[in-house]
Design a protein that fits this description.
heterodimer, A: alpha/beta, Udp-n-acetylmuramoylalanyl-d-glutamate--2,6- Diaminopimelate Ligase, Chain: A, domain 1, 6-stranded mixed beta sheet, 5 helices, B: Heat Shock Protein 90, 5-stranded antiparallel beta sheet, binds adenosine-5'-diphosphate, binds magnesium ion
């Protein structure tokens, strides 16, 4: 899906990187937990959907070579973060919809989940639980 | 007598300082490391794995340690990342390495860290991985990615 189409569908705005509006993102991953992004996404060019707006979000997107970051719930990054993303060539978009609705709309429009890494974290006993 | 094999030639060495609790800069060593590896023409797989390992190691130093340094070594056959900090050390390394174990304070969780997956993920993305730690002294993590070795 082109970033421009995604923005149109969600009523999202480009915070920075509008010059990349024709960029295609083929898959998406939604999380506020950056460790999960680092642990589970294995493809490049993935759209990151998040409510987290720290500088670390953009740095994670950069080291994972992600296609764009979409902030949900009306969250907006600081100017320093925006400038960093612009320098790193990572488009940032902002939508006022919440995470659930955003993901639902994008899925309905054909944007599929990023392939998850077959991780040993997926323990046979179920999801990892905090140690007591 | 066979002479010992010459050690693999060093292609690059970089040393980065990491300050404790510096959330404005946390993650910037990893983005630098990524740029260096890309500039050397390393494969996307190696670049991604090294960057992920570096990010988790860097965040741990920022969140939990008194600061330290990260050393990037690129040799003919491997990329090595060495994380060494000035303390406080980890009392039980096996426990700390378990997925899900975390002592992250609330302010770290609010930043999206503290799921207890960091060390596991570092290990998963490395071919060789070793943590040595002494309480009161500090922690040293060595993560090695071998080049030209198929990764699963
Ligand atoms: N450099 C370090 N110095 C001291 N303690 C550390 C260090 N790195 C990790 N730890 C400890 O190990 C735990 C697990 O680390 P990790 O697997 O990265 O998960 P998380 O950072 O999400 O807690 C941390 O919560 C912390 O208690
Ligand atoms: Mg960690």
């Amino acid at each position: 899906m082109k970033l421009a189409d995604l923005a149109g569908l969600l009523g999202a705005e480009f915070v920075t990187g509008a010059e990349h509006a024709e960029r295609e993102v083929t898959r998406a991953f939604a999380a506020d937990l950056l460790s999960d992004v680092l642990a589970m996404v294995q493809e490049e060019g993935v759209l990151l959907i998040t409510g987290m707006t720290t500088p670390q979000v953009v740095r994670v997107a950069e080291v994972m070579n992600m296609g764009a970051v979409l902030f949900v719930r009306g969250k907006y990054p600081t100017q320093a973060t925006v400038e960093y993303a612009a320098g790193a060539g990572i488009p940032l978009l902002a939508a006022s919809r919440d995470m659930y609705e955003t993901c639902g709309l994008l899925y309905q429009a054909g944007l599929r989940p990023a392939k998850r890494k077959g991780f040993r974290l997926d323990l046979p006993s179920g999801p990892a639980r905090p140690a007591a | 007598m066979t002479s010992p094999q010459a050690p693999p030639a060093l292609r690059l060495r970089r040393i980065y300082e990491v300050a404790p609790r510096d959330l404005d800069r946390a993650g910037t060593v990893s983005t630098e490391v990524r740029r260096e590896l890309l500039a050397l023409g390393m494969s996307p797989d190696v670049v991604r794995r090294a960057s992920v390992v570096c990010f988790e190691g860097e965040m741990n130093m920022v969140l939990y340690s008194e600061g330290g340094r990260i050393i990037l070594l690129v040799k003919e056959d491997r990329v090595e990342l060495l994380f060494s900090d000035r303390g406080p050390g980890i009392a039980d390394v096996d426990l700390a390495s378990q997925p899900g174990y975390s002592t992250a304070p609330d302010w770290a969780r609010e930043l999206g860290f503290g799921a207890g997956l960091g060390i596991t993920n570092m290990e998963q993305n490395s071919d060789l991985f070793k943590i040595r730690s002494r309480v009161g002294k500090g922690t040293v993590v060595r993560a090695t990615i071998l080049l030209g070795v198929p990764f699963f």
